[in-house]
Design brief:
Blueprint: H1 11-44, E1 48-51, E2 57-60, H2 70-85, E3 100-102, E4 105-107, H3 109-114, H4 120-134, H5 137-140, E5 145-153, E6 157-160, E7 163-176, E8 179-194, H6 209-218, E9 223-230
Antiparallel strand pairs: 1-2, 3-4, 5-7, 6-7, 7-8, 8-9
């Protein structure tokens, strides 16, 4: 077998070629290793998908347990104002609302439902105030009703982890069979707190399942009202 000899004058060129080849192989190996590690990391990462009504699937992004979207906070504040200050003696099915007795007063069913958005100790005092001083008796008697118009809802301001202030500007228009009887400006700063998980609402046994479902939907944002104070924009 013949020996393959490299001319002495070509030896430096050959060594340089070998070094370049070895360097290329080294960089290629490192790149492949990084790619494999990245793919393995992605493969082991927990991912959750939700299927939409149109059949498409969307990736769910993990967030902090106390994170709430601004839209959810504003929606909760708006719903709270409407439920607490829009009064009549009618149920959603059109039947007469006899009201709900609680803490020694009687309030419209919508007000009672809205109160479940409140922190429990705050809720009791607020319902007592609404039933004894704010809501006229003529509402449940069917002689007076009110409509709420929301004019402005501020962007939430985070005051602590999982806590926000939202300001709402609205007006309550009171009417009876003779037409509009007055207008009351509602300007409130509502403090909200994130609830880590949706609480189970304990209701009297005679409450119907549609009422329970309405409460579940009301609490779906997992946010609780901790205070309501008068404010000005």
């Amino acid at each position: 077998m013949a020996n393959i000899l490299i001319p002495e004058k070509d030896t430096p060129k050959f060594l340089i070629a070998l070094l370049l080849l070895a360097g290329s192989l080294c960089f290629g190996t490192m790149g492949a290793l990084i790619l494999v590690l990245n793919n393995r990391s992605l493969a082991t990462m927990d991912r959750t998908y939700v299927q939409m009504s149109d059949g498409t699937a969307h990736d769910i992004v993990q967030v902090e347990p106390l994170h709430r979207e601004p839209g959810s906070l504003k929606s909760t504040a708006e719903s709270f104002i409407q439920l607490m200050f829009e009064w009549d003696n009618k149920l959603p099915n059109g039947e007469k609302d006899a009201g709900v007795s609680v803490v020694g007063v009687k309030v419209p069913s919508k007000v009672y439902m809205g109160s479940f958005l409140m922190e429990p100790r705050f809720r009791t005092e607020f319902l007592k105030l609404m039933g004894s001083q704010i809501i006229p008796k003529a509402v449940l008697d069917g002689f007076l009703e009110s409509s709420v118009v929301i004019y402005e809802v501020s962007e939430p301001v985070e005051i602590a982890p999982g806590r926000w202030d939202v300001r709402v500007l609205a007006a309550r228009f009171e009417t009876n069979n003779r037409g509009e009887q007055g207008q009351v400006i509602i300007s409130r700063r509502i403090s909200l707190k994130a609830i880590p998980k949706q609480v189970s609402v304990l209701l009297p046994a005679d409450q119907t399942s549609p009422f329970r479902e309405s409460l579940r939907l009301l609490l779906r944002n997992k946010v609780m009202v901790t205070s309501v104070v008068e404010d000005s924009f």
